[in-house]
Amino acid sequence: MSQAPLFIQHQAPYAGYNAQETLDALLVMAAFGQNPSVLFQGDGVWQLVGTQEATALGRASVLAQLHALSLYDVENVFVDFDSLIQRQLSLDDLAITAKAISHSEMAKFINQHTFIIRL
Amino acid sequence: MIFVLLITAPVSHSNAWHSYYFAQAALKQGHTVRTFFYGDGVQVANCLLSPAQDALNLSQLWQKLAQEYQFELAVCVAAALRRGITDADNAKRHQLQGHNLAQGFNLTGLGTLTEWLLSADRTFSFVGS
Fold first, then answer.
1. Distance from C-alpha of B48 to C-alpha of A39, rounded to nearest angstrom
2. Which of A68, A89, A118, B40 is 20 to 30 Å from B97 by CA-CA measure?
3. pTM for the full model?
4. B47 in active site
5. What was the ipTM of the complex prediction?
């Protein structure tokens, strides 16, 4: 069983500060050397799609910050495959490489983590 | 047990109240409680909140509980500032006109949250979304 914490991104990138603040907490956890995983699910999958015109909303681009994940050695990036399909997206639409998890694998996947942060 | 309460529900959401009642019950039973207010949960640290006369003031309830059991009411500084909540120090640093952090609440960083999460026997999220 993995000892890693899991952060679930489940909201669209600029629907409030949820995406930004989940990412901030994840990056600090990574800076503490805890090897966190991140799962994009539901409207959270939109965070992975380019191009984001964040400045029009007065915000910093969430996607640009997601590119920093590899700088923090966050390699465990996952996406809920069914969430993509429901939004007529595919893995090819994503600007960040993510491993697809199907619904049938989801319970086992979630269970592999010590604790879950889903704000 | 060490319980970490990660509270992102705003005061208007029932989960913000559930977090308080959970903390109260756990403390009564002798457990250790660590509360971290994040996201919209930081609203509770605004001393200018003024609920109607027939409503309870959740900020004051937390203050009393923290005083009685001597535990920290930690508030994420970045989440607070972007929602217009600041203490005197940060107001000065960011050249803001006033400060409104309620007594008993502490502005702190996500390092605190991370340390607490790693030390917790159980982590509870009280979400508002």
1. 37
2. B40
3. 0.95
4. no
5. 0.94
